[in-house]
Design brief:
two-stranded antiparallel ribbon, 4 helices, seven-stranded mixed sheet, alpha/beta, globular, 172 residues, binds adenosine monophosphate, 9 strands
Length: 172
């Protein structure tokens, strides 16, 4: 089986000039590699009593939902503004250029529930950290985060606050 990194395609200048887009669709399409990826993402969380996996729109849904199934946990979507029906709790956060907003169902997680936040790529780190803070606002216990790919050169890990672990399967 190919290493996971061989199944992530670099696409230069997409969706904008200067961006090296990490295309994870070859990894998703490879049954054995996708299964191995989900197993590896789940391994630090097995037996930790995780009640919900919070996946970030949109590619975090793919990995997060599969992880939730494997961990016998629920799946909770963290979505871009205006996509979830009310009541929602939202959080604005800074991007490299401008602002963005994530939302979560106001009653999607029980206070004190153990959750993890999941996305495909950690770039500047703003999105995953915003999701972490949002989930915390609902009173959940954030046990940590998982991503498939970390773009280490962008140092997104430095934005991840608190002591909870942040796991990346592949660094690049
Ligand atoms: P950031 O907040 O900068 O860490 O960006 C992470 C979010 O943007 C994730 O939801 C990724 O899906 C997406 N993203 C950022 N940079 C890339 C990239 N180079 N390739 C693919 N997705 C990216």
């Amino acid at each position: 089986m190919s290493p996971l990194s061989d199944l992530v395609r670099d696409v230069p200048d997409f969706p904008r000039p200067g961006i090296m887009f990490k295309d994870i669709t070859p990894l998703l399409a490879d049954a054995a590699a996708f299964a191995a990826c989900i197993d590896a993402l789940c391994s630090p969380w097995l037996g930790k009593g995780i009640g919900a996996v919070c996946g970030i729109e949109s590619r975090g849904f793919i990995f997060g939902a599969a992880m939730a199934r494997a961990l016998d946990a629920g799946f909770v979507p963290v979505r871009k503004a205006g996509k979830l029906p009310p009541p929602v709790v939202g959080l604005d956060y800074g991007l490299e250029y401008g602002l963005d907003r994530l939302e979560i169902g106001a009653h999607a997680i029980a206070p004190g529930e153990k959750v993890i936040v999941v996305d495909d790529v950690l770039a500047t780190g703003g999105t995953l950290e915003a999701a972490r803070r949002l989930v915390e606002r609902l009173g959940a216990e954030v046990c940590g985060g998982s991503v498939v790919l970390e773009l280490a050169g962008l140092n997104g890990r430095s934005r991840w606050s608190g002591d909870a672990p942040l796991y990346a399967l592949v660094g690049s």
